[in-house]
Each structure stands twice: as C-alpha cells, then as structure tokens.
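FORM 7B: Structural annotation worksheet

SECTION A. Query
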Amino acid sequence: MAKLLQVDFPFTGPFGAEMAEALKDLAVSITEEPGFIWKIWTENASENDAGGIYLFETEETAQAYLEKHTERLKGLGVEKVHGKIFDVNMDLSKITNGPV
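SECTION B. Predicted structure
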C-alpha cells in the first residue's frame, strides 16, 4: 500500500523561482530514491517554513527517505524536522482528484 510522507521544517529561503533554481539538482535526485512516486513541494515565506508531501510505494521506503532527508537537513543546520507517514485511502482520494 502506498504511503504518504509529510515533512516540514523552518526555512528562510530562497522561495519561489529562486528556490526552484537553487534546488533543481536536489529535485532530480529525489526522483531516484527507492520507492519514490511523486512529491509536491511546499513553502510559506511569510512563516519561514518549507517541506513537501511525498508518495512512496511502501512504509519502509518512506521511512528510509525520511531518515535520510532529516540527516541531510540537520547537516545544513535545520534543528527541527517534522515528518509523519500516513496510509492513503485510495478510494476517497480518487473521488477528490488526488494524484494517486
């Protein structure tokens, strides 16, 4: 069963087009992670937050990526990384046009 991973953390920028340019290589590398299906990038410049919503094939691949990403962010000085893994209700998600 697919697993949704929600991650957010304090981030002071860049945001928008600058973020897209600065993190392009990271985005490409994420697509190569085991079990990765898709990611929606999130940002809130007014609250200095960023993160993403990911879909992985299994709980194991979602957990492995969360651990890897948390360590990467901590290495960049991010102290608090919030991550949660959820089951996906595919039937309801399809009704509401979820990208599943």
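SECTION C. Observations
The chain has four helices and four strands. Strands lie at 3-10, 36-44, 49-56, 82-87.

SECTION D. Sign-off
Analyst initials: ____
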